[in-house]
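Here we describe the complex-level prediction in full. Unlike the single-chain runs in Section 2.1, the two entities below were treated as one system.
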Amino acid sequence: MNQSPRGTTPQASFSRLLEMLRPDLLRFALWLARDRAVAEDVVQETLIRAWKSREELKDPTAARPWLLTIVRREHARLFERKRLPTVDVESVEALGDPALASDGDAALHDLRGAIMKLPDEYREPLVMQVLGGFSTAEIAAELKLTQPTVLTRLFRARNKLRTIYGLTPAEDAE
Amino acid sequence: MSDGSSDCAHARLQIGGDPHDVPPVVSAHLATCAACRQFREETLLLDRRLRAALELPLTQFRTQPVAAPARRFALAASVALAVLLAGGFWVLRPQPALAGEVVQHVLHEADTWDAQQLLPASDVADVLKTAGVEFDASLPVVYAYACPFNGHRVPHLVVQTANGPMTVMLLAHEKVSKRTEFALDGLHGVLLPAGGGSVAVLMRSGELPEDLAGKIVSAARW
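The structure predicted for the assembly as a whole is:
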């Protein structure tokens, strides 16, 4: 981080950048973890790690994908280390979590529920692509999968969600 | 569907994988296959809805006083290590810069001023423990969270006072040489030396309760 607004230190600029992006990180973490407390833990750990590694971020415009990658790795690390129990997807909605508020749009609410219920192997690349803006190649590299495998998982994820809107799923040679 | 159903299957796999970025061979197929064009349009529409669905409203995420959940302690060891590793840098930073950062942090979490309900002392103690700070938790605390701040977890408390809500940040890793008053962006407060660190006390309005601030400084241990 070499650039900073006039009259501020690079550290202060970086700190503001983290604050600004924190909602995005929390949103991303929540879709991965499906548990608000875990998501907040993941984001806090991410912020600590990002601060320690801030010299690695040469271009502030690349901060968002850089931080989202740390979020994903922290989430994976947390699950590997703690072997957290699988989230009961039915209870995610039952909790009435404000993060799943309907916005007055019932279809959107249903879609959120359907995304939450996607298996991890489908939900994770989908969230990375649609919310995180990662390319298929970047997702493949991050998840240590081949690109065709990622493409197939993304196809299947969308195929499962098509029915929410009454669309016919595409044939799948599963 | 065009005469080559395998072409359609391939096209739909690619479209379903990424409807915004299809390879040239699929683009060529789309030029001749109305059914696959429709499939792509449907998928693009679905993606717009997906995007909207994934953009969760987060307005309530940080409005409630959050006691550190039990699992937060699971990270305590790694955080403590991070704090140890990170300790030492940042010490010589000018105090006005620190005041600005504290104000920015507090403004970012301005909703914490609205907390009304007193937290159990055990919840406050949990937050302090997470941040590795010892402190007399008998104050009327209505908000407590171990916030990330300059690479450390820092107890961010809001205390009810006769003059209104007062924010207290226990900055174990931010050494200040002398008492420094500040008034920035509608907030006023003071940075107070406390052992090897400092305490930031801020208010939106009303006179700063100096006696209380003094008690907080003498009660902080790190």
